[in-house]
Amino acid sequence: MPLELDEAVRHLSERDETLRTLIAETVPFRIDVADAQSPYEVLMESIVYQSISGKAAANDITRIKALGSDGRPPSPEQMLKIPAMKLRKAGLSGAKVLAMKDLAKKALSGTVPTHEQALKLSDEELVERLVSVRGIGAWTVEMFLIFRLGVQTCCPSTILE
User: Fold this and answer.
1) Could you tell me if 61 and 69 are in contact, meaning their C-beta atoms sit under 8 angstroms apart?
2) pTM (two decimals)
3) Is residue 85 predicted with pLDDT exceeding 50?
4) Residues 157 and 1: beta-carbon distance below 8 Å
5) What local confidence, expressed as pLDDT, does residue 71 receive?
6) Three-class HEC string of the chain
7) What is the spatial distance between Cα 95 and Cα 136, in angstroms, rounded to a whole number?
8) Is residue 27's pLDDT more than 90?
9) Helices 5-15 and 17-25, interaxial angle, to 10°?
């Protein structure tokens, strides 16, 4: 069951005077989702970061961005044109190359929505769409919901059951 943050704060403030004072003096928690990355780019980075160190993944991201233009990762159209061997040389495993190609195809088909489209979808519909992408699982979608869309849920995995 999703947790409504405002409702929880109100509930605690009404029931405990000490908490009411602390809550009143504290800056409200908000996730900063004002980021220029598209869902496609966020998910691309998520794929790269899977199962390797952060430093290695950051290096791979730099090499992948060099294959795009204007310092950004390759667009879905560009990604589909990049030979697998070039992506392997950028540091991607064979499985990650397949995942990147699938992500690009599904971004072009509309399965992976734009940020604006994602905001209009229910959590369940977004989960269904994104887990259909090779290499994107429930945990990745949960992190996307929280950190890119700012969905504030108590237990994101409950929407996946």
Assistant:
1) no
2) 0.76
3) yes
4) no
5) 84
6) CCCCHHHHHHHHHHHCHHHHHHHHHCCCCCCCCCCCCCHHHHHHHHHHHCCCCHHHHHHHHHHHHCCCCCCCCCCHHHHHHCCHHHHHHCCCCHHHHHHHHHHHHHHHHCCCCCHHHHHHCCHHHHHHHHCCCCCCCHHHHHHHHHHCCCCCCCCHHHHHC
7) 12
8) no
9) 130
Using CA of residue 95, residue 47, residue 89, residue 75, what is the dihedral sign? positive
Q: Which pLDDT does position 73 carry in this prediction?
A: 93
- Amino acid present at 51: S
Amino acid at 15: R
| One-letter amino acid of 40 | Y
Share of the chain above pLDDT 90, in %: 60
What's the token pair of residue 51? Answer: 């199962």
Cα–Cα distance, 27 to 44 (Å, whole number): 33
Closest CA to 136 of 127, 147, 145: 127
At residue 160, does pLDDT exceed 60? no
- In the structure encoding, which two tokens stand for residue 150, read together? 């700012």
